[in-house]
Design a protein that fits this description.
It is built from 16 helices and no strands. The chain has 302 residues and is mainly alpha-helical. The chain has one domain: UbiA prenyltransferase (Tetracycline Repressor, domain 2, Orthogonal Bundle), CATH 1.10.357.140. The model has no long low-confidence stretch (mean pLDDT 92).
């Protein structure tokens, strides 16, 4: 008789399901948070603090599904590169725990779920979803051809913002594109910290990144992008008429950015990775500021 685990699965099946979860990075949720916070910024701002409940569920589920699908496709594209990078050599595809055909099947399944979620949106949001799907497909392969793949990641991670505005209001105003621009800048910042961890390995195998492009000026350029992000966040507050709670959140985010510079000051792998991991707190704090504004501003709530 075949032995089963406490949840009714055979040990082999349970182990493979864990490998699939690792392939989708469900054990490393920071990517979900980095994608989720700007999406929630957009839902709350576009609805003046009262997002549609159904849209909230669709977009949160979409964040998890699309991030998972992107990770699966990324690892499939990098399956011959990851074994030569210290940080990624134990990934399921790189180690052989998951076969390439299994990964493609999993990606197709996640894609079908994403399509199902998109069909629940209005027509303007569905049209934008097509662009989002293209960006998701493009990013894993772009690092071989351009020196700024982090910018393409920012486009992919931020695309939920115009989708959220379109789903909530039926239109994509200038404010939506300003929020989108801030999300793109933020993605370049945190993914450059991430790329700094692998810079030496990436040089050897020919993978391009902003960490390599910026070279010794990396922290200086990141600092400039951080200043630009703060300006963009202030402009968002002005355009959306967000008050003191939001501005206080932006100020706290600025303090965190200084801390991230300090963490990465020696450009050690541990310090840069810590700066990357902690970046999602910026998105969280900004979201808290948005929520507090709409909660305590009677003029908006009324």
């Amino acid at each position: 008789m075949q032995r089963t685990t406490g949840n009714g699965f055979s040990p082999g099946l349970a182990s493979q399901l864990r490998n699939y979860a690792k392939l989708m990075r469900l054990d490393k949720p920071v990517g979900i948070w980095l994608l989720l916070w700007p999406t929630l910024w957009a839902l709350w701002i576009s609805s003046a603090g009262r997002p549609d409940q159904g849209l909230f569920i669709i977009f949160v589920a979409g964040v998890v599904v699309m991030r998972s699908a992107g990770c699966v496709l990324n690892d499939f594209a990098d399956r011959r590169i990851d074994p030569y990078v210290e940080r990624t050599r134990d990934r399921p595809l790189a180690s052989g725990a998951v076969a390439p055909l299994e990964a493609l099947t999993l990606f197709a399944a996640l894609g079908l779920i994403a399509i199902g979620l998109a069909t629940m949106l209005n027509q303007p949001a569905r049209r934008l979803a097509v662009v989002g799907a293209i960006l998701t497909l493009l990013y894993p392969f772009i690092k071989r051809f351009v020196s700024v793949p982090q910018f393409v990641l920012g486009l992919a991670f931020g695309w939920a913002i115009p989708m959220a505005f379109a789903a909530q209001t039926g239109a994509v105003p200038e404010l939506a594109w300003l929020v989108f621009g801030a999300a793109v800048i933020w993605a370049v910042i945190y993914d450059t910290f991430y790329a700094m961890v692998d810079r030496d390995d990436d040089r050897k195998i020919g993978v391009k990144s902003t960490a390599i492009l910026f070279g010794d000026a990396d922290l200086f350029v990141i600092g400039g992008l951080q200043a630009l992000l703060l300006v963009a966040l202030v402009l968002i507050g002005q355009r959306a008429q967000l008050g003191a709670w939001y501005l206080a959140a932006v100020a706290c985010s600025g303090i965190l950015m200084v801390w991230h510079q300090w963490l990465a000051r020696h450009r050690s792998a541990a310090g840069c990775f810590a700066a990357f991991l902690q970046n999602h707190f910026i998105g969280l704090i900004v979201f808290i500021g948005i929520v507090l504004h709409y909660t305590f501003n009677p003029a908006v709530v009324a």
